[in-house]
Specification:
Layout lengths: L2 H14 L10 H8 L14 H7 L3 E14 L6 H7 L5 E15 L5 E4 L1 H4 L7 E4 L5 E10 L4 E6 L22 E6 L7 E12 L10 E4 L11 E3 L5 E8 L10 E5 H12 L11 E5 L2 H7 L7 E6 L4 H5 L6 E5 L2 E2 L3 H11 L4 E8 L2 E8 L11 E3 L9 E5 L2 H6 L8 E6 L4 H4 L7 E5 L2 E2 L3 H7 L6 E8 L2 E8 L1
Antiparallel strand pairs: 1-2, 1-4, 2-3, 3-6, 4-5, 5-6, 7-8, 7-10, 8-9, 9-12, 10-11, 11-12, 13-14, 14-15, 15-16, 15-17, 17-18, 19-20, 20-21, 21-22, 22-23, 22-24, 24-25
Amino acid sequence: MTMKKWFLVCAALAVAAGVAPKFFGPAEESFAEERVPPPSREAVQYSYAPIVKKAAPAVVNVYVRSRVQTFDSPFANDPFFRHFFGNAFGHPSERVLSSLGSGVIVNREGLVVTNTHVIKGGSDAAIRVALADKREYDAKVIAQDDKADIAVLKIEGGDGNFPFLPFDDSDSLEVGDLVLAIGNPFGVGQTVTSGIVSALSRTEIGQSDSQVFIQTDAAINPGNSGGALVDMSGRLVGINTMIYSQSGGSVGIGFAIPSNLVRVYAESAAQGRKVEKPWIGAKLEVMSREIAEGLGLDRVSGAVVTRLYDNGPAAAAGLEAGDVITNVDGVEVLDARAVYYRLTTKGIGQTARLTVLRNKKPVEIALPLVGAPKPGKNDAKNLSGNHPLDGARISNILPSVADEFDLDDIGGVVVTSVRDGSTAQQFGFQPGDVIVAIGKEKIANVDAAESALEGRRQLWQISVKRGNRVLQLQVPG
């Protein structure tokens, strides 16, 4: 051991013993004080064990069994035969696939939160939850949101006295705080890893407009999804959901859904209702360098109001096109997703206080949070009949629907859902598809779509806008 290393070790022991080392003055006196042994083992030993004992019993393994259709053929892996002969040689079969993830019990009655991608493909009867004490129960899905990647399960059976983790305020986290990740990586059994909060308010990787993530370097691996991110008080601050990795293993960049958003879904599910996100009646865009320069701003930060809907809450509150939202309730927001996250966790019926930059000057706005206007009787319909859209539900593109599916158009018809096993699903229609035309007839609303689908045709021609592309579907009648 070098003199430098020996000196640092002695200094660390002295600090643990409560003896402040003297780094200036006679060397003999300084080293004599630093070499005093610590008064107890506890003075030099720190353990996460008390936190783990408190939190681990509420973290569960989630097992999902799903049936998938496959095709067995001796030529299945030969691209030549598959290209020219398809499924002509072989026979269909069914396989049972098992997947494994984690979850967290959040109340005494057995409410479990996890990720939707953990339970993907599983029926209610195929989901099983295993507790840390080896008890196992069936569970059913009572709520899920694919965009937010949050699912809520209810354990069936038991004594109604399950161990659970209380929520903590994820907004109280700071970069550098110690956290523990608890889950079942690679199916090896419950595992605890430690780390720090590496970053907050990560939005670049989200799929939903309200997704904001906590970044941590606590090791998260496959199987940890849906597990707990716990603070030093043993309370839940996040649900581990994904990692950044080129190898499939942890490289110290993991992401968790903040507990404040998870709590909204858990409480709503417990009350038997869906999460209703506030509708502000405005279109928000991410600030870009070009927009910042055009507005004369020196920071590329905030959410730009690009469009207001007539009679919407934002217009009534005094927001204007070109305003840049920089704070919500005193918390800085870096982009549009951060704004939507703040409003969603605030909740309908509340009032959010926005700080916006208008002509480079701050302006305070009180924005009431309300639900989106409900579609009228003729604004949405389920389609049925002898046509390719049988089993699809379509809606006029109202402002609230345009916000939900991130559509720029405010006229036309959008597919809002597709029934499993329906004709529409078989032809590949998806929620968010905009029906542009049926045959030579342009579709302006639901009534026009229903009228165009009446009767029989030798050839159905349907134009569908999906994202930035227009797809042409041709199906024999």
